[in-house]
Amino acid sequence: MLGLGIIGWIIIGGLAGWIASKIMKTDAQQGIVLNIVVGVIGGLLGGLVLALFGVDVESAGWFFSFFTCLAGAVILLYLVKLFMGRKVH
């Protein structure tokens, strides 16, 4: 069961990272592995932010998890663009 959970997080993270890279216009710079990494880290970031506001992110379901990953990935990519500047192509 744990393996299926990890595979699910990789799939959700990859999809969320890819969509976030499309939203933030960084898809040309990223490959599939970086999309997965951004999505999974975005999920952790989004989950942390929601937990700070008292939202129960663990039992909310797959759709909520996807949107949490997507929002966190967009925030992560925004912060990367902010700190790296516009010189990165």
What does this structure look like?
The protein is mainly alpha-helical and 89 residues long. It has one domain. It is built from three helices and no strands. The longest helix is centred in the last third of the chain and has 23 residues. It starts with a helix and ends in a 5-residue tail after the last helix. The mean pLDDT is 81.
Which regions contain 5 or more consecutive residues with pLDDT less than 50?
A: none
The separation of the N and C termini measures 41 Å
Summed up, the helix count is 3
Count of extended strands: 0
Q: Briefly note the structural class of the backbone.
A: mainly alpha
Query: Which series of helices and strands comes N to C?
Result: HHH
Strand content: under 5%
Shape: globular
Overview in brief:
This protein is mainly α and 89 residues long. The chain is 74% helix and 0% strand.
Sum up the structure in keywords:
mainly alpha; 3 helices; globular
Reconstruct the topology from this structure.
Elements (H helix, E strand, L loop, with lengths): L1 H22 L8 H21 L9 H23 L5
Helix pairs in contact: 1-2, 1-3, 2-3
